[in-house]
Each structure stands twice: as structure tokens, then as C-alpha cells.
Amino acid sequence: MLTLYTFGDSILDCRWYNDAGLDPGQLLVRNDDRLFPEFHGQDLSSHGPVRLEHRAVDGATVAGLPSQSRNLRPSGESVAILTVGGNDLLQGLLVDRGPGIQHFATVLDAFVRDLPIRPVLIGNVYDPTFGDDERDFTGIDPRLARENHRRMNATISGVAARYGTLVDLHTHFLDGDQTWFTHTIEPSLRGASEIRRCFLQHIAMPGSLST
After folding, report:
1. pTM of the model
2. Which CATH fold would you assign to the domain 2-200?
């Protein structure tokens, strides 16, 4: 049986933000054909036995990742998906002028390096303003904020290159619209499906993964 593990923040733990109570991990395991007929037959359960072990936590930062992997004992086929960094930016790294993002990189690198699950797919941080400074909600100089967002995503890309695969949520969400979000930054139901879409491109179906 394949086990899909989720780690990180509300990009993957967003069921609280939609009436259907769905998040990307759930949709990857079993699509809701009524809500998303486009994905009929494209979920993991359509190709073999699969279970979801959901460990991502709304509001998590990189410092909380080690607690999410506590008592982790993977067996058989497994794949991990991870998103982190957005809360770190909002909690101070958008204005980082020193070692903050480098510290983030060190902690993330250690977590992914030691994670006993492969493959691991790492999503970068999307931009709920769609690159439009007039949509800014932070009150921070957009030039500094966007540069640190770029640095954050470069850091995530580097970790992904060393240990797994980058899932480019940032580029995909630049072509989205406000219906993909709720509460300004959180994924809506549509957003959860679009996150699923991005990860699905990189997940092999049950039976084709290495143990």
C-alpha cells in the first residue's frame, strides 16, 4: 500500500477554509468527482491501495517541521509532500536584511535530509497578490518583500534539488485569480484543487514508486 504523507503549513492543511472540508492531500488520494470531474480517475486510489497520513499544520513555520515527523515509521511505498515558508515570510522574513533566510535554509535542509521518506516533493511559496503591488496587504516595501520572497523560493528550490523535486506553486498561481484564495492568503476549495494539480504532475501512481 502506498502512503502519502503531508508536512508543512496551511497550503496543505487548508480543509478549515472551505465548506467541503477538503485539502490537497485528500484530493490526491481520492478525488471528489462531483466537485472536480476533470480529475476523475486521476487520483491515487484509482490506481491501487493508498492511505493518507496528514501531518501538515495550519500556521506552521520551518521551526515546527521536526515535531511533524515525530514517531514517523514509514514502511512500504511512500511519498512525502511538503510546503513551508509562507508563514516564515509573514512573521518576519519579508523584511529580512540579514541571516534570517539563511537560517531558514539550514533548518529546512536538515529536516528534508533526515526525513526517512523518498520521494519528497517540495512546494514553493505562491504570491496571493499575483505580482501586483496594488494588491499588497503587508504594508512592507514591495521591493524588499518581493526580493525576500524570491530568496525564499530560491532556498526552497535548492533544497528540493538536493533531496527531491520542486513543485512550482508560485508560477502556477500567478495565472490564478481571487477565487483561488480565501482569508487573503489561504487556499480556497479551488485553490486546494490547484495545489493538488501541481503536486499530481510529480507523483507516480501506486506500484511504480521505490520502497
Report:
1. 0.95
2. Rossmann fold (3.40.50)
